[in-house]
Design brief:
There is one protein chain. The strands form two sheets. The chain has a three-stranded antiparallel sheet with strand order 2-1-3, with no helix packed on it. By secondary structure, the protein is mostly helical. A hairpin with a 5-residue loop joins strand 1 and strand 2. The protein has eleven helices and six strands.
């Protein structure tokens, strides 16, 4: 008003929304409802009671002041889940700001672990485990590269299955153990010859891994799948002095026993 050479009243009559002029209730309500500031510009932020727009003020802070109105260009539609995305939207702040205050909320980044593993170290660098392992393949937790030989170990690794699974499908592959049969070596080697064969428990049914008689140089001994002689189950005989019990004890049938002992109790008598 001073610069214009007019009174404050005259200036405010021409510029009713200007700071310091004050507002009639109707004008204030009109401006507030339209989210338009004193200069007639659309406010995208917090509109104060004096119609000054604060575009950077968060909704939560704006709502703390009586009469202040939070305005946006377009209505914000927030999701309803209890996640960082939805809850930060509802408060009118960023996810980062929300998570800084509520770090345990679903969707907020978890703190990194401290072990020297791919999981922890990749988290600390803010990259995926795959990206970290591509740069640091020897780190604990990174998958080991497969070998290239045509063996069960390498080929099963390339297919992403166990050696046992691979050998079940390709038993002829180098490194796959073929089934043992009677007479095969099931264990050998030692001090002089190195590890040799160690398939002590792989002998077929009806055989056992049995050491050969005698010892070789260095105390080494070879074991073979040897047929086992079944141990007969013990026979329990009665103790009465009658043909049935005595025949059982003698290991013969009752008929054989009675043929030799015709008058024994229980044998019966010829007419």
């Amino acid at each position: 008003a001073c610069k214009a050479g007019v009174s404050k009243e005259e200036f405010c009559a021409k510029n009713p929304g200007f700071a310091g002029c004050g507002f009639a209730a109707a004008r204030e309500a009109d401006v507030q409802s339209s989210c338009t500031d004193f200069a007639g510009n659309k406010c995208n932020g917090c509109l104060a009671t004096n119609n000054v727009c604060y575009p950077g003020m968060p909704k939560k802070q704006c709502n703390m002041y009586p009469g202040f109105q939070f305005c946006e260009d377009t209505p914000r539609i927030c999701c309803k889940a209890l996640t960082a995305e939805c809850l930060s939207c509802a408060e009118g702040i960023t996810e980062e700001e929300y998570c800084a205050k509520n770090p345990d909320t679903v969707g907020c980044p978890k703190p990194c672990c401290y072990a020297l593993t791919a999981e922890c170290l990749s988290c600390a660098e803010g990259i995926t485990e795959e990206e970290y392992c591509a740069k640091n393949p020897d780190t604990v937790g990174c998958p080991k590269p497969c070998c290239y030989a045509l063996t069960a170990e390498c080929l099963s690794c390339a297919e992403g299955i166990t050696e046992e699974e691979y050998c079940a499908e390709h038993p002829e592959t180098i490194g796959c153990a073929t089934p043992l049969k009677e007479g095969d070596v099931c264990k050998s080697g030692g001090v002089e010859t190195g590890p040799g064969v160690d398939r002590f428990n792989d002998c077929p049914a009806g055989t056992s891994c049995v050491a050969e008689s005698g010892f070789a140089i260095g105390g080494e001994v070879t074991y073979f799948c040897t047929a086992t002689t079944p141990v007969p189950e013990p026979v329990l005989c009665c103790h009465a002095v009658i043909a049935d019990c005595e025949a059982c004890k003698a290991g013969v049938s009752k008929e054989e026993f009675c043929a030799k002992n015709p008058g024994f109790a229980g044998c019966g008598f010829a007419a």
